[in-house]
Amino acid sequence: MSYHNPVLLKESVDGLAIKEDGIYVDVTFGGGGHSREILSRLGSEGKLYAFDQDEDALVNAIDDERFTLINENFRYIRQFLKFYGIRKVDGILADFGVSSHQFDKAERGFSTRFDADLDMRMSSKNTISAYSVVNKYSFDDLRRVLFQYGDLRNANAMANKIIESREENKIKTTEELKEVLRSFLPKHKEHKILAQIYQAIRIEVNQEVQVLEEFLLQTPGLLHEGGRLSAISYHSLEDRLVKRFIRAGQFEGEPEKDFYGNIDVPFKKVGGLIVPSREEIKKNNRARSAKLRIAAKI
Asked: Does pLDDT of 1 surpass 60?
């Protein structure tokens, strides 16, 4: 089964500053590239727990007694680690976004290249699909999704067009959605705008922003002092949340201060923003928008 080459593999795992006997978590297992690299640096007493909500990822499970794969959304990281008797870990790695496998499997409906049912769920357990967003959301909700998650300036007009069209016939496939929005897709920008539309719907379907916030809020309580968070983002919304949380321990406003006026934050930044080299982008086009941030628990 084809999964993408892991992005910023060496840099993200280096960022964990792995101890041979440490406990680590890879919250976005996918094809297992990052997990294999972590395991290669662990000794016989080390442990790695990995999360992936996508049932397709289970075929990539690694046969290693130090490794446990949990088929759940990483928003439940604390709950499931606790189930395995783990309360504190030495490092957490996250590679957000959609795997190449999910894009390449036509019937999942993630890709602009194929005609497929409007689905876009990263897990079959999800109750919301792209079909329900497109056919059941109100004008205000559709506009919000397209504007907030797709950065689409025509969000109002697009939402109107979708609502007009679905009153005549339900919009069932990615090709039908493309046809409904054809007037917003000038030839020279068609793929770019379509990608923004799909991204917006996918983020809503999988609650990606809420999941990311819930996950980040749990990380300070899970990491030992000095433990590392290594997080790879692919669009500005994700990266902004990661950056703000590392800097301020929250997503909006200024960091909290204690009684003496000292800034009270859970992390300190380790190094600066890391982006892929030209060579990596040449080999793996998916890497072009990746941004890696590393932080240590104070």
From this structure: no
Maximal CA-CA distance, the chain: 63
Domains by residue range for the chain, with CATH: 9-100+208-297 (3.40.50.150), 127-205 (1.10.150.170)
pLDDT at 111: 52
The C-alpha torsion from 243 through 247 and 249 to 253, rounded to 10°, is: -90
Tokens representing 289 are 């928008």
Mean pLDDT computed over 258-271: 89
What are the DSSP calls for 275-298, one per residue? ---HHHHHH-GGGGG-EEEEEEE-
In whole angstroms, what is the distance from residue 99 CA to residue 226 CA? 30
* Spacing of C-alpha 216 from chain mean position: 12
Six-digit token pair at 297? 């628990």
Q: What is the mean pLDDT of residues 70-81?
A: 97
Average model confidence (pLDDT) for the chain?
Answer: 92
Question: Of 26, 53, 61, which Cα lies nearest the Cα of 41?
Answer: 26
